[in-house]
Amino acid sequence: MSTPVTPGSPSTTTPPPIARPPIRVLLADDHTLVRRGVRLILDGEPDLTVVAEAGDGAEAVARARDTDVDLAVLDVAMPRMTGLQAARELSRRLPDLHILILTMYDNEEYFFEALRAGAGGYVLKSVADRDLVEACRAAVRDEPFIYPGAERALVRSYLERLHRGDGLPERPITEREEEILKLVAEGHTSKEIGELLFISAKTVERHRANLLQKLGMRDRLELTRYAIRAGLIEA
Predict the structure, then answer these.
(1) What is the C-alpha separation between 190 and 201, in angstroms, rounded?
(2) Could you report the per-residue pLDDT of 169-196, keeping only the tens digit for each?
(3) What does CATH list as the number for 23-157?
(4) pTM value?
(5) 87-119: pLDDT as tens digits
(6) Biased-composition ranges for Low complexity (predicted)?
């Protein structure tokens, strides 16, 4: 028999929890099979849903601007605009958007560059099935996520730099030069690059000359090799 509730006394029934809408995710990777696999992982969770996909960084920026998303999951190496370049652009244009880097590169330089670009987490593709879901949740809570095992190496490296009197790694080239370097290495002409970046071909040539001088290189071939080493394009 149920216990009567007298007038004015608090109800003994606990109110049901308020259902929250799932986290809306933008997924950007230039490999369709990778996107499909990652989407299966995320859509399998009740609090996560992929609402948009992109095949390169430029498309990711465009999709984020015309779609209501809470979190952008970006690959590093993509055509036209890398995930790190896209992260910088999204941080400027959509400061409330949470960003997570999903990459195959277990690389300290990329990790620090991701933080500079505004990302709240860094997850390796090799352990995405284990770490990605929690990383997405942490990013939306504004909690940093570093894949397990990386913390000790990062802290050791940072302490070594402090001991030597060094700071964090410096960027060898500017963000604009990096954008142009990537497009040059992908084979775009100065006119095409100018149209993509909304600058004149003459300005592109000036940046290209600055790149050659700053990096001590002579031609496009050497710039392309540098872009591959820097992870701007894939070999």
Answers:
(1) 5
(2) 556 788 888 889 889 988 999 999 999 8
(3) 3.40.50.2300
(4) 0.69
(5) 999 999 999 999 999 988 877 777 778 888 889
(6) 1-12
Token pair listed for 134: 């929690």
SS3 label, residue 114: helix
Q: State how far the alpha carbon of 42 is from the alpha carbons of 100, 107, 117, 136, in Å.
A: 13, 24, 24, 9
**Would you tell me how many other CB atoms lie within 10 Å of the CB of residue 147?**
20
CATH code of the domain occupying 175-229: 1.10.10.10
Q: What share of the chain is helix, strand, coil (3-state, %, to 5)?
A: 50, 10, 35
Radius of gyration of the chain from Cα atoms? 22
CB-neighbour burial class of residue 204 (10 A; exposed 0-12, middle 13-18, buried 19+): buried
Indicate the domain borders of the chain: 23-157, 175-229
